[in-house]
Amino acid sequence: MKKWCSFRELQRWPILFVQRIMYSPCAFQKKPRAISSKAVYSREGLPSWQQTRGIFGRQSGGTKQQSLDDIAKGIREREYKRIVVMAGAGISTPSGIPDFRTPGSGLYDNLQQYNLPYAEAIFEINFFHHNPKPFFALARELYPGNYQPNITHYFVCLLHIKNQLLRMYTQNIDGLERMAGIPSKMLVEAHGTFATATCTVCQRNYKGEELHDDIMEGMIPKCSTCKGVVKPDIVFFGEELPQNFFMHLTDFPLADLLIIMGTSLEVQPFASLSGAVRGSVPRLLINRDPVGPFAWGSQHQNDVAELGDVVNGVAKLADALGWTKELEVLMADGAKKDTR
Fold it and tell me: Which residues form the active site (predicted)?
């Protein structure tokens, strides 16, 4: 048995990790079922092999712990030019969108008026087929245009403008990333989008704008061809993830910096991606609480956690970069466009 891996083998390791995300029978649930290459949106906990990244991580033998200023220096000096961002509901709550999980203010806690058998049912595909009305009532509240992007979205847009963003992976369905100016080709909306829609019967495709009037008027959108229910391309529990989630998974082995912000890293398979970068790549967490590998105590020497309010954390990073003025101009321009 070999004790050491060759450098070439180490380089190949992240690709193998990505393949495990795509094909592992246990990647998306606690109890493995039949092997399938189709990932399903799951509420289950993290798979045990998530911690594999530590095998190749940089260890703590006397090396200086990285700081937020070190990360900022690397971005400013363009040491990091292939930055991947992972984001969750925590970047949207400052825009007024309620979090899915925060007790007392989360979306799940505010759904009792719809007489659901349980809160999660509103995002379960079988329940939707039985009764789509509660989802469309909620969609009316969440529909793009009801809320405005904040500094976190514009910061990622600024990374793109500076040609340093490889891709943004978001769990959010609110469309604030697009509104902030991040092009769709730079986005992987892991849990779907309101930008497109599909008939649940004949599979005819629609643009999201075509559903707007019906949703705003409290009506269920119907297909003009077969009169079936037209569902926004939001990924429900029990549905397959969008194809572009898999098309771009090789972003992670290519990344030279991973920024994770505003996410609990609880929903699979999105959460597993935090371990898909090379072991030498810094991971910056900007979050209210430590999550994922930052909570397991499996941080690496070049990982950095900026805990607390996400907006304050991003503002602090922008200040360390010397980008505050640019960010303010970008946000002001975005606000002008939104009022036109």
Answer: 191
